UniProtKB/TrEMBL annotation:
<dbReference type="GO" id="GO:0008270">
    <property type="term" value="F:zinc ion binding"/>
</dbReference>
<feature type="domain" description="N-acetylmuramoyl-L-alanine amidase">
    <location>
        <begin position="21"/>
        <end position="159"/>
    </location>
</feature>
<dbReference type="InterPro" id="IPR006619">
    <property type="entry name" value="PGRP_domain_met/bac"/>
</dbReference>
<protein>
    <submittedName>
        <fullName>Putative peptidoglycan binding domain-containing protein</fullName>
    </submittedName>
</protein>
<dbReference type="InterPro" id="IPR015510">
    <property type="entry name" value="PGRP"/>
</dbReference>
<dbReference type="InterPro" id="IPR002477">
    <property type="entry name" value="Peptidoglycan-bd-like"/>
</dbReference>
<dbReference type="InterPro" id="IPR002502">
    <property type="entry name" value="Amidase_domain"/>
</dbReference>
<dbReference type="GO" id="GO:0009253">
    <property type="term" value="P:peptidoglycan catabolic process"/>
</dbReference>
<feature type="domain" description="Peptidoglycan recognition protein family">
    <location>
        <begin position="9"/>
        <end position="153"/>
    </location>
</feature>
<dbReference type="InterPro" id="IPR036366">
    <property type="entry name" value="PGBDSf"/>
</dbReference>
<dbReference type="Pfam" id="PF01510">
    <property type="entry name" value="Amidase_2"/>
</dbReference>
<dbReference type="Pfam" id="PF01471">
    <property type="entry name" value="PG_binding_1"/>
</dbReference>
<dbReference type="InterPro" id="IPR036365">
    <property type="entry name" value="PGBD-like_sf"/>
</dbReference>
<dbReference type="GO" id="GO:0008745">
    <property type="term" value="F:N-acetylmuramoyl-L-alanine amidase activity"/>
</dbReference>
<comment type="similarity">
    <text>Belongs to the N-acetylmuramoyl-L-alanine amidase 2 family.</text>
</comment>
<dbReference type="InterPro" id="IPR036505">
    <property type="entry name" value="Amidase/PGRP_sf"/>
</dbReference>
Length: 406
């Protein structure tokens, strides 16, 4: 199966819920199936007792499995709590203890609670979809092999509330896994125009030498189907990568402003920043930081005092309208800061002609309407005052129905 890359979802580790150490687990798991369970406790008593204490609930399941059932560990590989947190369970590489006849070839996921009684929430469903997508991608499991416990055993598990949604959950997982084509907009600083390509996630970014930065790496965890950057930023990356002489892990690059994750006028939203080197030793990381600074190709390399476990590099446009922020843009401007502007305006409902990085009449009208609504100087020019108000309103607020997302 050819699946689109999926990030590992955030989860609470075994130490995070104070798991006891396994006692003599053995065997192996070929991971061909994924079986969804619920804890199914009578009258939902455990879920009522623990409330939102998902860690305590997971710990109690392990105690029952190890002390009463005399198993080597908690039977499930993962839990999903009542709030929607994902919790790490039994090691994926040993024999499971959750479905007779499938413990040697299936991953077990237990949703806390009795779903013949309680409702399966959207937060829980979203976490389950993210976890399933990551597992299917990582272990090349067919979405048709996502099963409810009742599909393989005589049981009501995982409860009607979950089982009734399994078909749509499989569809959502398959949609996430389907190979994507990303619209990549690169501003050519030599010609003053954007160049647009529709590229697969495993394709190298335009202008990258020797495939050292793929679309997948640049896009990272962003949910966007359109990304943007500058040619000169990619060229600066080429220089750094050549000087370093070996691979550089890139976990964080692009984000849409409404997705958040960074500061208010952060260069990641403008597509001209990368955070890298998290997997390096402290010594290697400082060598990479020193190299990036000495090459002189980046506008900013963050010092270790504020970026102790990563190396931040960016090629921000100058001069900034606000300290360390975006440049002033107006009708006729064309660059990735205009992309950020249009994205923010669209998210707030001030649509002005789409999302193309070109500041035209439609964008100016949207800017004026925004300025008027927030008692700013109505001049259609986006300087420090307008950038500050706009980015503080939009940063990290999440996608809204008015967001343009080609």
């Amino acid at each position: 199966m050819s699946y689109s890359w999926q990030p590992k979802p955030a989860m609470i580790s075994r130490s995070g819920w104070n798991a006891a150490s396994p006692s003599g687990c053995s065997g192996s798991n070929s991971k061909q199936y994924i079986i969804v369970h619920h804890s199914g406790d009578q009258n939902d008593a455990l879920a009522i007792h623990f409330g939102t204490n998902e860690k305590g609930f997971m710990k109690r399941i392990q105690e029952i499995h190890m002390n009463s059932n005399r198993w080597c560990d908690i039977g499930y590989n993962f839990g999903i709590g009542v709030v929607g947190s994902i919790l790490e369970g039994r090691n994926l590489n040993v024999l499971g203890a959750h479905a007779v006849g499938y413990n040697s070839n299936a991953i077990g996921i237990c949703v806390h609670g009795n779903y013949d009684i309680r409702s399966f929430t959207l937060a829980q469903e979203n976490s389950l979809v993210d976890l399933l997508a990551w597992l299917c991608y990582t272990y090349n499991i067919s979405t048709a092999n996502i099963l409810g416990h009742r599909d393989v055993s005589s049981t009501a598990c995982p409860g009607a509330g979950i089982y009734s949604k399994l078909s749509s959950i499989r569809s959502k997982v398959l949609q996430k896994l389907s190979p994507q084509s990303i619209s990549v907009h690169v501003f050519n600083d030599d010609t003053g125009n954007f160049e647009v390509s529709n590229l697969a996630l495993n394709s190298p970014m335009p202008y990258v030498l020797n495939s050292t930065l793929t679309v997948r790496e640049f896009k990272g965890n962003s949910n966007s189907s359109v990304i943007w950057t500058h040619k000169r930023f990619i060229q600066a990356w080429n220089t750094l990568r050549s000087g370093w002489g070996r691979g550089i892990h890139v976990p964080i690059a692009f984000n849409r402003i409404w997705e958040g994750g960074h500061g208010y006028q952060d260069q990641h939203y403008a597509g001209v920043a990368i955070d890298c080197g998290q997997n390096l030793s402290n010594t290697e990381r400082e060598q990479l930081r020193s190299l990036a600074s000495s090459l002189g190709v980046f506008e900013y390399v963050e010092p270790a005092s504020t970026a102790p476990t990563w190396v931040h590099i960016d090629k921000r446009l100058r001069p900034s309208a606000c300290s360390a922020g975006y440049i002033l843009v107006r009708n006729g401007s064309k660059n990735t800061c205009v992309f950020v502007l249009q994205d923010a305006l669209n998210t707030l409902g001030y649509t002005g002609g789409g999302l193309d990085g070109a500041f035209g009449n439609g964008t100016e009208t949207a800017v004026r309407n925004f300025q008027r609504a927030y008692n700013l100087t109505v001049d259609g020019i986006v300087g420090c005052q307008t950038w500050t108000m706009l980015t503080q309103l939009v940063r990290g607020m999440g996608k809204t129905p008015t967001t343009v997302n080609p």
